[in-house]
Design goal:
The protein is α/β, with parallel strands linked by helices. It folds into 2 domains: about 180 residues, NAD(P)-binding Rossmann-like Domain (Rossmann fold, 3-Layer(aba) Sandwich), CATH 3.40.50.720; about 120 residues, N-(1-d-carboxylethyl)-l-norvaline Dehydrogenase, domain 2 (Orthogonal Bundle), CATH 1.10.1040.10. About 45% of the residues lie in helices and about 15% in strands. Strands 1, 2, 3, 4, 5, 6, 7, 8, 9 and 10 form a 10-stranded mixed beta sheet that branches. Helix 1 links the parallel strand 2 and strand 3. Helix 12 crosses helix 13. Belongs to the HIBADH-related family. NP60 subfamily.
């Protein structure tokens, strides 16, 4: 992974994968009902960095629950609707972190996550003892450990908390948090996680949350690729793909993803809930993780190639279900 950072102190070697040390605790901590009263246990100021497809609804739910929220985004206009709901705005991550008790970050990729945390006027510059930084971005293990090291060097606490779920679960406060890092910070922000999500897992040391998220998204991306193949094969042999979706949904391999995405895929519509470019990025990171522990992942590797083909055909910003279009292109060129 080649990375160019604006920071003068983030090491250039961060793109190399290291063998993660796993110490997983699989205990699930169930969330309570999402009501405004859940903020009673957290009365501090909350920062939120990155208000895109996922970050916006997450920050919005915090504001609607009565939290004191300060936001930042590279494109300031994306913050304006949140400001109209009562959020404060600061001009850089450093200012947000300095003015808040805990700061969440939801960035698109490892490069952005490092730059926002560690770069010039990054969040680490505004951190100090008693503050906390929670990175909910999907990044690789090495990136998460790097960010953790810079945050903790300030005396602050760090928690990685990537989420399982896309746009609609984020809007509905139904995300699943995969957390690891400082347990004291986890305990402190439980009321906030309960506002934004339906469940949360504490997985121990930093890196375990990132690894779990990559494994989950590796499986999801591979499933969507296989589902796409089945949809096109059913149509080509004269079957109705809409009926295929019903059959799958009612059987042992049924998954909400198939019944939710399938009907739109039949119509060649791909409303973006999880951009295809992010799914391919997560597959790439998962393959790097597998390589670091010498684990063979041939199915995920094949799926990754398909998503790369889809990107080459201009589908990066479509929903990841648009990967089916890459198969259509192959079918036409091969006929």
């Amino acid at each position: 992974m080649s990375v160019t950072l604006s920071s003068t102190f983030c090491p250039k070697s961060f793109g190399h994968f290291t063998r993660p040390m796993f110490s997983l605790s699989t205990k699930q901590f169930s969330s309570d009902s999402i009501t405004a009263s859940t903020t009673d246990d957290f009365s501090g100021c909350v920062g939120f960095l990155g208000v895109g497809i996922m970050g916006y609804p997450m920050a919005q739910n915090l504001i609607k629950a009565g939290c004191d929220v300060t936001v930042w985004n590279r494109t300031k206009s994306k913050c304006d609707p949140l400001i109209s709901l009562g959020a404060k705005y600061r001009s850089c991550p450093e200012e947000v972190a300095a003015s808040c008790d805990v700061t969440f970050a939801m960035l698109a990729d490892p490069e952005s996550a490092v730059d926002v945390a560690c770069g010039k006027h990054g969040a680490a510059s505004g951190m100090s003892p008693s503050k906390g930084y929670i990175d909910v971005s999907t990044v690789d293990v090495t990136t998460s450990k790097l960010i953790s090291a810079h945050i903790k060097a300030t005396g602050a606490l760090f928690l990685e908390a990537p989420v399982s779920g896309s746009k609609k679960p984020a809007e509905d406060g139904q995300l699943i948090f995969l957390t690891a890092g400082d347990r004291a910070l986890f305990d402190k922000v439980v009321p906030l996680l309960d506002i934004m999500g339906k469940s949360k897992f504490y997985l121990g040391d930093v890196g375990n949350g990132a690894a779990m998220k990559l494994v989950v998204n590796m499986i999801m991306g591979s499933m969507m690729a296989s589902f796409s193949e089945g949809m096109l094969l059913s149509e080509k042999v004269g079957l109705d793909p809409s009926v295929l979706i019903e059959v799958i949904s009612g059987g042992a391999i049924g998954a909400p993803m198939f019944s939710t995405k399938g009907p739109s895929m039949v119509k060649s519509l791909y409303p973006t809930a999880f951009p295809l470019k992010h799914q391919q990025k997560d597959l790439r990171l998962a393959l790097g993780l597998a390589e670091s522990v010498s684990q063979s992942t041939p199915i995920a590797a094949a799926a990754n190639e398909l998503y790369k083909v889809a990107k080459s055909h201009g589908l990066s910003d479509e929903d990841f279900s648009a990967v089916i279009e890459a198969l259509k292109v192959r079918s036409v060129s091969g006929s």
